[in-house]
Amino acid sequence: MSEILTFHFDGELASSHRMNFYEAARFQYAAARLLVKLAQFREFGRFGQRITSSSNYDIEIKTHTKGSFNINVEDKTPQKTSNNSSEKSKTLEPFIDVPLSSLFSYVADRLLSKSDESAEDEEGAKVNKSLSVNEEKILNNVLSGTLNIEETPVEIRDIIRKHISEINRKNLDTHTKIFSKIDDIKSQKLVAMSAPLFKEMATPLRTSASTLEVQSTRRGKKTSLVFIDKKIADEIENEKIDKLPTNISGNIKQLNKDNGYGKIQIENGLKTIGFNVPYDLLPKLKMILIQGLAENMVDIKAFLVRDQADEVIKAIIIDINIPKNIQQ
To answer: What angle (nearest 5°) sits at the alpha carbon of residue 301, between those of residues 42 and 277?
Structure first.
C-alpha cells in the first residue's frame, strides 16, 4: 500500500506559491535523507551513514499540487527489501511493519514539545489551560468533520492545526507492541540521526514560510502528523538530546494524562523542567505516572534535553518507577 507524505508550507513567500531556492533545497535534502533512513530502519532496524544506489528506496517526489506550497512524496513500496542481495538474505520480514508516517511520527513525538492542555497538579486542579472554551469547541468541530480547517478563524488556525497533529500522533499507541522492538539504544540512534535533519527541514521557516505541516495520505484519508511554526523551529534549533538515558529522581508537579506532558521537580526541588512521555510508551507508563503525581518522589529513566548552555530544560521519559520505600 503506497502512502503520500505532504510537506505543506504556509505564510511568507509560500503564501504566493514561492520559496527561497536555497531554503527549499536545504529542506528537500534533509527530508529526503530522513525518509530514506527511516525506510532503512523500518526494514532492518538500522540505517547507514551513506545513501547509495543499493541502499536507496522507492520514495518519489510527485508533481506539486495547488496550495500555499506543497511538496508531495510517495512511498511506493513500504515493505521493499534492499537492492543489495546480501541484505535481502538477512531478513524476509521488515524489522517493524508500519507505514513510514508512523515511524516519522515516532521520531517527531520525541523531538517536539507537547501542549499542556488539561494538565493537572497534585491536587487534581487544572493548570495552564491553553485553549479557550470557544477554541476547544472549534477544535472538536474540526475533529468531527463538521468544520473544515480552512473555515476556522485565521488568528487561531495555527494553534488548532498544532493540536490536531498532536492528537493524531496519539495513534502511535496502536503500534505500542510493534515499537517495543525498538530498544533504548536503537531509539536513541534513530532520534540522534533525525534531530539534525529536523533542524534542516525547518530552514524554510527563516524567510520562505511561517509554518510547516506534514501530512500523510493513505487509502484516501489525509492525516496531519506534525505542525511546526517559527517558535517550535527555534526550539528544535537550540536543543540537543543526550546520547544516553539518565536515571534521576524527582517530584511530578503536573501531568496531562492524555498526552504524557508534565512538569517534574529535580535536583532536590531546586529545578522544575517539563517532560514528555512518547505516545507509544504512554499506555504502559500511564498508571504509574498518575500514581507518581500523588507521591513525593519517583524514579525516572529519561533522555535529557539541553539548551545551548548545556542546561537541562526538559526530559523524554522512557520508564518510571515508584521507590519501594514509598510503595510500602
So the answer is: 60
Find all residues with CB under 8 Å of 122, minimum gap 6, and list them: 252, 253, 293, 294
Alpha-carbon distance of 154 to 244, in angstroms, equals: 42
CA distance 257 to 227: 22
Residue 80 has pLDDT above 70, yes or no: no
Q: Taking Cα atoms as reference points, which of 280, 209, 278 lies closest to residue 7?
A: 209
Q: How far apart are CA 35 and CA 43, in angstroms?
A: 12
CA 194/CA 224 separation, integer angstroms:
19
Q: pLDDT of 86-115, one tens digit each?
A: 443 344 689 999 999 999 999 999 999 887
pTM of the model: 0.87
Rounded to whole angstroms, how far apart are CA atoms 186 and 190?
Answer: 6
Distance between CA atoms of residues 257 and 248, nearest Å: 21
Contacts with 153 (C-beta within 8 Å, 6 or more apart), sequence order: 138
Cβ neighbours for 148, distance < 8 A, ≥ 6 positions apart? 142
Query: Which residue segments constitute the domains of the chain, with CATH numbers given?
Result: 3-238 (no CATH), 240-327 (2.40.50.140)
Distance CA 178, CA 175 (A): 5
The strands making up 221-229's β-sheet, listed across from edge to edge, are 59-61, 70-75, 3-10, 211-218, 221-229
Q: How far is CA 89 from CA 44, 83, 143, 255, 319, in A?
A: 11, 11, 45, 47, 35
E strand map for the chain: 3-10, 59-61, 70-75, 119-121, 126-127, 211-218, 221-229, 240-241, 246-255, 261-266, 271-276, 298-306, 312-321
> Residue 228 is placed in which grid cell?
511546526
Per DSSP, the three-state class of 232 is: helix
SS3 content of the chain, % helix, strand, coil (to 5): 40, 25, 35
pLDDT band at 326 (very low <50, low <70, confident <90, very high): low
31, amino acid identity: A
